[in-house]
Amino acid sequence: MNAITIHMKLFGAFRKFGDALNFTVPAGSTGAVVKKTLSSLLSGNEASLVFDSVLADDSAVLTDGHVFQADAKLCILPPVCGG
Questions:
Q1: What pTM does this model have?
Q2: Is residue 37 part of a domain?
Q3: What is the structure's pLDDT at 1?
Q4: Which CATH number fits the domain that encloses residue 42?
Q5: What's the pLDDT tens digit per position in 19-64?
Q6: Which of 41, 32, 29, 39 has the alpha carbon at shortest distance from 5?
Q7: Does some domain include residue 83?
Q8: The 61-62 sheet, strands edge to edge
Q9: N or C end of the chain: which has fewer CB within 10 A?
Q10: Contact at 8 Å (CB) between 7 and 55?
Q11: Count of domains in the chain?
C-alpha cells in the first residue's frame, strides 16, 4: 500500500512539540489512524489529548472516519477550556 504524508500544524497544548509535524500513514487511512499515529509521536498528557481533539483541513472539521487517499495539510485542535 502507498504511504501518504500528513503535514500536521500544531495548536494549543501541542505547540510544545513545535509548530508542525510531518509523518506518513498508509493511503486509505482514516482520521482515527492519523490520530493514533500522531499520538505515538507525542509524549505525556498530550499523547492521550490527541483523541479528545479534532482534525481539520482548510475548509472543514474532519470526522474520525474521514479517509485520506493523498497527502494532506491538517491541523489538530485540542478542546478549549476557559471563561
A1: 0.92
A2: yes
A3: 65
A4: 3.10.20.30
A5: 999 999 999 999 999 999 999 999 888 899 999 999 999 999 999 9
A6: 29
A7: no
A8: 20-26, 3-10, 72-77, 54-56, 61-62
A9: C
A10: no
A11: 1
